[in-house]
Amino acid sequence: GEDVEQSLFLSVREGDSSVINCTYTDSSSTYLYWYKQEPGAGLQLLTYIFSNMDMKQDQRLTVLLNKKDKHLSLRIADTQTGDSAIYFCAEMTRNNDMRFGAGTRLTVKP
Amino acid sequence: ETGVTQTPRHLVMGMTNKKSLKCEQHLGHNAMYWYKQSAKKPLELMFVYNFKEQTENNSVPSRFSPECPNSSHLFLHLHTLQPEDSALYLCASSQGATGIGTGAGTQYFGPGTRLTVL
Lengths: 110, 118
Fold this sequence. Notes:
The complex is a heterodimer. Chain A is an all-beta fold.
């Protein structure tokens, strides 16, 4: 496909794990990113993974990359109400252009 | 705090007004970007500046006029806007488009300006 694709909505209970999925477009993309946007704020770079890796863990966040399927996921362990936000997947192409998905709105219920 | 600031944070203007949005980055970057974020739409890249030169203009109407006087500052001049231009306008910066696979294009965003056109 031509677009970076993500589901628009995800709802989880506090304490559960959240998994946000993304399909990107360019098999030669060098970096894949997750950004977080809280209400009324800009996009905050959450984490990224280089394309020669298949996993990256950073505290409660785990990023998985499947290059063959061009699939990226973000797992948030022990999801808290403060994790409620919109999460954007993005890819960086070989000429350093970034393409963003439409964002997944994560709602965490108490 | 990402090192990218935007002012004002909120702006309400009439259709006949002229106003400007300002973005400043303190990261030593060479590329700056304007994005428009409307409700229920993907991020729209509007303009890209690399080393003060405009390298991309994604068919943006002429009522939006960017200005990049130096690598640290970016402006978006607004005149005779329409109500459908109401949106969150985001500025971002990156090191610059050099070196394949270096990550130099990683973008850092400001907090945005919430614009309402009456």
